[in-house]
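Objective 1b. Sequence-to-structure analysis of DUF38 domain-containing protein.
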Amino acid sequence: MPLLLSYPGFRSILEHLEVVKRAHIIARAPGLQKIDKLIPLCLKDLCINSNNMTINKLWITCDMNGVNFAMNRKIFIRQSAETQEDKMKKLIHFYICGRSITRVDRLDWDTNFLPVDLKLRINSLSVFSHWEFETAIRFIDPRSFPLKTLDTLPDFSTYDNHIATSAETLILLLVVDPIVTVEELKKLNNKTVEFESDHSEIDIIPLIKYHIETKKDIRTTFVISTGDKDFFNETLREFKQAFRKYRNDLDGVNERFIPGLPKFSIPINNESRIQVYAIENPEKGGHWKIVIMPVSEVVGL
């Protein structure tokens, strides 16, 4: 006769069980429902919007006709319900509220709804306004910081926000503020900062000149990502004009450079230099990246 699992055994299994499968099992096991809220959830992706919620591959939408449940965007359940706001409140409460902790790899927050009794421990956060950022922070366990990745639209406060400047990777979508100054760039302590823009003025060249003059190490890799070919070519032209004498083939660098475009190796001091080159964005067809990467002189060219 097989031995029954102890509570620690049940806890370990449920905690690491894929959350959609877990919800399916819990709904059919009244005994497990009594302890479900006591056991943390582990989610890969959680997206909360005003009228939909995505939990891993489960996509839940609310409209005037009711609540739609879908896996891989294929609707398999449709239920009628109350108002759209009430539907979202009940869904969020059922799946993620009232737990000791919910672990989330990536949280996408875009809602005016303020859940109660919610605490998330996350690795990455995606928000698209200062208000959403401040709201989401209230529900994030402090042990989540520093974040692995923060993806946001910057405003005047972003460059002075410790949560933003301490994230390992900071991704800034430049839509509202078209200019990023040298002083703002100096405040960024992230390992990598990626600007997604098709038109913005980013003072990367003045920043590099500042480091050349002061001989201060630059520790952040900056990336300019764009889908605008004219903006891409113009930015490279500015690098070529400013650092023509530092053009370099960057032999030995393991990257898939775009053939025919200029590359640079710019000395900062006796111990470091900056490599600049262009690559295609492997995640977005028809997009390009200009990479500004500091390297040690030991491995530099």
